[in-house]
Amino acid sequence: MSDFTSAAADDAGRETPFPSDPISDVLDLLTYRLRVDPELRLEVRRELQSHLDESITELRRAGRGEADARAEAIAALGDASALADELWGANRRRIRARAVAAWAARLLLPPIAVALILLLAYNAVVTWSLSYVTVGQGQFWIAPPNARQRVENYRAKAIAAAPSDAKALFAVEAAWPSERQIERAGELARSRPGDAALYARYAVLESNRQCIRAGTTSDPHAKGFLVVDEPALSQALAAFEEGERRERNNALYPLLMAATLFQVSAWDEADESLTVRRPGRYSNDQHDWSRNLVLDPKRYALALDALHRAALKPYLRSYNAELLDRKMAAFPLRRLADVWARVGQEMQMFSLSGVYFWNAAETAAYAATDAAAQGHRDDAQRILRDIRLLSTAAAASASQPTETQAACWYFTMADQAEARARAALGDSAGAEAAWTKCDQHVGDCRRAFSVRVSHDEKARAGILYASLLNQWTRPGGGRIDPGPMRRAEYAAVDELGVSAVSAAMLILAALYGVFALASWLRNRRRDGLHPLRLTLGWRRTGAIVAVAAPGPVLIYLVYARLTWISGRGYGLNVQMRRVGLEYLALAAVVTMLLSYLIRRAIRARAEELGLPVPPRASCHRPLCWMLLEATATLAALACLAGVLFILSGRIPGVSLSTKKLAPFAVGLLAACWGFMALAVVALRNRNAATISRGPGLAGTIARSAFPVVGLAAVVLAVAGLPLQWLESRAVAQAAAHQKSALFLNETDTPDYAALRAELRDQRQQLLHD
Q1: β-pairing, 276-277 with 286-287?
Q2: Bridge-based pairing state of the strands 266-270 and 290-294
């Protein structure tokens, strides 16, 4: 019978593993009622044994013989039944408390740990999913599972808690198909007749209504090439007329009318004869051009009149910024996920910004060159002036750099049209002057927008800023500090990493629990015994948990703050793989350290209880078995990595879909389990010295370690919660530097300010001419 097992004792006396002698029989009798708690029974028995040993030693010193000293020491204990009752009464509450604590550890620690791990990891996973959906998979080597569904759930929860104005806008956005979206936008605008921004959004959506469809012929010169949907066109024009009636000074509505009428009345046709190549100006300075194929002259003339009417309006305002601010109320800046959600909304809000303007300005520019080719100088000049007035009006009211950039390029398109128009009218000197002016405006736009961002700058910017530093944005002349946003991203990944380490400890606890259950069932079938469960005490347990769980993690986080060592002066876009490997190593260190300290403490506790503990024999193993174990482990990890790559759809050099690679994933998973089994077989091939520890001690360690490891998982998850505060603090610091993470602080750069000032001056000059 093993020394580390206890029995379900019966009256026959098979309740103790100790050898039979008079003192042992007395101790068995005194502690018999404590058998429901084997560890406590051993502890009380050890105390009684120590008391008897001291009494026997004193009596021996007084001259008694060995047998007389034993008999007298036992007699000094008094009535055995009364003492047994006294011991039971003194320890009964303690037994109940220990039982409650043991069952609480078994039943509560795992779900608490799981809940804390999910709480810690949820924010990081949502942030990961939002960033993945927003910028695509280029920045990530592993795709988050169910990213889009998770993003939709996050947005739905945020919108549900948003103000009513934001909810209404998101309801319009969610309507599908586009006709239903337009109807919802119209209903919302009519329900709030005094809200100019809502009506402007409705009008912009109305301008995207499909008013034409393909005709019966594919020849653009044929009469039936385009068929106009007259009811849809009438509804759109009526909406624009109503908008102009509501806001007479806003050029938006006549401009939308012009764009829609151009759409149903003309078709642009590329003309190679109008292409201008100007070698020596820029590396790729080729200007393609088209001419308008007018299908409905009456509506074409109405479109030009609407464009001219729009150009005479004092301002051009689409209310994009106002509507975006309302939607942003659904995503207050509390954490990094909110930043990514806001960036996604900004991208979506401004994706259609100026599309109507582009359609109208492009067709109008072609109309100017067509009029000049026909000798209509005044018409050409009027159209060009209209385009410039609208471009400068759009730049003056632009709330975001994207709108300013679009207005700038529309202005340069008018310069190109003027150069072609003058050439068509025979004014070669005027054409060359127009090209010179176009070159100047293009240079101004490139200086303001086409910034070159160095590789090192993007490397230090982090995932968010590195994704946004492009032709639309710039680092603000060096005034943007990417540090706070970079720290926020690292805080989010640290939350995920700490939760993964905590999950690794929870898995270790589960493995201990499974091994303890298997040992209990095996011994139960064999001789009715089961492994002991030893408690280490709060002081010893606290020391183990503090040293093995939060200790290494805190050391790692301190190391991570030293950017010159950890490399966190560069963003996650550069260091993502390194951070992942560091957390894998950290999880291995924590689990091995925790397992070692627990085993050591349980051996010490067993020695305190007087259990015969086998010596710590060194494990001398043949080299071949060690190599086999290492090779099998590495092969299992390689197979698991292959499965993860297949599931994520990111396999270098392989273009097959995940569905086609599914059989390979199943095969690799089976191979992984096979290699793991081989590693276990190699690990069990120990020498006799190692086997001498016996299954009883192994079962006791497994059964006693489960609550300690579960507590360590809980403590580490709790210790990781302050990372969410660090993330929020870093986000607040980053948000204080710029109005929008999408556009950084480009509006503060000298080149951008100079471009806007130049466009305003151009507008004043055009109005005075």
Answers
A1: antiparallel
A2: antiparallel
- Label residues 216-234 b or e (16+ Cβ within 10 Å = b): eeeeeeeeebbebeeebbe
- Segment (H or E) for 269: strand 266-270
- Check pLDDT > 60 for residue 406: yes
Q: Which residues pair with 531 in a beta bridge?
A: 5
3-class DSSP state of 268: strand
Hey, what are 134's tokens? 């927003």
CA distances from 597 to 543, 548, 593, 667, 701 (A): 9, 8, 6, 38, 11
| pLDDT of amino acid 740 | 67
Find the helix packing angle between 22-30 and 80-135, rounded to 10°: 70
Residue 529 and residue 7 in contact, taking contact as beta carbons nearer than 8 Å:
yes
- Which of 256, 252, 253, 244 has its CA nearest to residue 397? 252
Instruction: Summarize pLDDT for 124-160 with one digit per residue, the tens.
Output: 999 988 888 887 766 666 777 788 888 889 999 999 9
* CA dist., res. 28 & res. 44, Å (int): 11
Task: Specify the DSSP class assigned to residue 227.
Answer: E
CA-CA distances (angstroms) from residue 493 to 549, 572, 575, 702, 732? 18, 9, 11, 32, 18
Q: Do 143 and 649 meet the contact criterion of CB atoms below 8 Å apart?
A: yes
- CA torsion, points 341, 342, 347, 353, in degrees to nearest 10? 140
**Tens digit of each residue's pLDDT (9 = 90 or more) over 15-50:** 444 444 677 777 777 777 777 777 777 778 888 878
